[in-house]
Design goal:
This protein has 293 residues and is an all-alpha fold. It has one domain (60-293): Orthogonal Bundle (MetI-like fold). The chain contains 14 helices and no strands. The chain has helices at 3-6, 11-38, 60-65, 69-100, 108-120, 125-134, 152-163, 167-175, 180-191, 193-208, 212-217, 226-234, 256-278, 280-288. Helix 10 crosses helix 14 (280-288) and helix 12 packs antiparallel against helix 13 (256-278). Mean pLDDT is 82; it is low at 237-251. It is found in: Cell membrane. Residues 75-277 form the ABC transmembrane type-1 domain. It is a multi-pass membrane protein. The chain crosses the membrane at residues 12-35, 79-100, 112-132, 183-205, 259-278.
């Protein structure tokens, strides 16, 4: 018998559990509504009606949104930015953090001070925009990748994690004739897989959800990311032509609301699929770098 089952629940416990359950339901209802509307057949959809379950299931909205050039272009842009950006994030962050763990590295103190300074202070929107403009990166995918190769918080956590690894392993590898690069690739990287998995998901989610930078750096609608396109569908009155025609070759006009909800679901699904596979590495990967001693 568990401790919880043997413990007598007090009035405070009942009130606490009831309030937490109510708050959980309030948080879950918007997601239920989004999923239900997205799968509702356009023929039976009624605006401003709350759907817990679709009255009649249909994939018409998904078939239509996946057939539009605007959504496909946004999906390709987001996938490219996420895959390339995440790979570069992991390579740069772990390489730089490993270098910062070496006390013999020239300029190490200055670089650590710069990282801490960047953690506290930010240049702001206007200087960042002017820098991107002067580099000729405006309206380019690289404007969303190069400025975000790493960040101060990630470097500090990864550096702390790498410093917690046994130094004797590196010394043994060097005695066996392994170079610095060999030590990093053969010893440090395999031991850092939990942290790499955790930060890979952190970086991937950040790139997948990129919105503000894409909004101010990219003006070509063909290069919009999913988040910018969804903002256009959900908020702006002009839906960029999505959902204005019938689906499946007939004359039915699909309601804009079902199109919007289907777009939101499609934008969430990839991260929801990847997250469970890497979730187990979150606590282990981050906590290993949080405390040393």
């Amino acid at each position: 018998m568990s401790f919880v089952s043997r413990k007598k629940l007090t009035l405070f416990d009942w009130v606490n559990y009831s309030l937490l359950s109510l708050i959980s339901l309030i948080c879950i209802f918007p997601f239920i509504y989004v999923f239900s509307v997205s799968f509702t057949d356009p023929k039976v959809y009624v605006p401003l009606k709350f759907y817990v379950f679709p009255e009649q299931w249909s994939l018409s909205s998904y078939r239509y949104i996946l057939s539009t050039n605007s959504f496909i272009n946004a999906l390709k842009s987001t996938v490219f930015i996420t895959v390339v950006g995440t790979a570069l994030n992991v390579i740069v962050s772990f390489s730089l953090a490993y270098a910062l763990t070496k006390k013999a590295m020239p300029g190490r103190g200055i670089m650590i001070s710069a990282v801490i300074f960047a953690l506290v202070f930010n240049a702001g929107i206007i200087p960042s925009y002017l820098l991107i403009k002067e580099l000729g990166l405006l309206n380019s995918y690289w404007s969303l990748i190069w400025p975000a190769l790493t960040n101060a918080w990630s470097l500090i956590v990864i550096k702390s994690f790498l410093e917690s690894l046994p130094a004797e392993l590196e010394d043994s590898a060097r005695i066996d004739g392994c170079s610095d690069l060999g030590v990093f690739l053969r010893i440090v990287i395999p031991l850092s897989m939990p942290a790499i998995a955790a930060f890979t998901l952190f970086f991937a989610v950040s790139h997948w959800n990129t919105y503000f930078n894409a909004l101010i750096y990219i003006s070509d609608s063909k290069k919009w990311t999913l988040q910018v396109l969804i903002k256009t569908l959900v908020i702006d009155s002009d839906s960029n032509g999505v959902g204005q025609a019938g689906a499946g070759g007939d004359d039915r006009v699909i309601p804009q609301e079902t199109i919007r909800m289907a777009s939101i679901v499609l934008a969430m699904v990839p991260i929801l699929i990847v997250y469970p596979f890497l979730q187990k590495h979150f606590a282990k990967g981050v906590m290993l770098g949080s405390v040393k001693g």
